[in-house]
Amino acid sequence: MAAARNWLYALNAELADAGVYAGTLTVAALVLHSEAAELAIGDQDAPAPDGHLADFPTVHPDQLADHYWDMYTRRDRVEQAHPVELTPTPTPTWRPLSGVGA
Q1: Domain of life of the organism in this record (predicted)?
Q2: What is the rounded distance in angstroms from the CA atom of residue 101 to the CA atom of residue 67?
Q3: Pairing label, strands 30-31, 58-59
């Protein structure tokens, strides 16, 4: 996962001057109305009143579309997660210390 993230950050930086955006949305929730969600919700002994899974994050596809659109139009971040509180904090670019090892 770390290698993929590093590659994505490098790709985004390389292509930015050409007007190309590269980003990723990590979904850490069950996508409602998907086949997997329907099976999981149907297998519950006691589904939540709103049809969601108890104690498991869910997301509506429209919310994901909003995240994608926001990322694409703003281009202010390379990655985002849903739920948003799982989004990693970007680390500064690594640079060797000057004069060390020379």
Answers
A1: Bacteria
A2: 44
A3: parallel
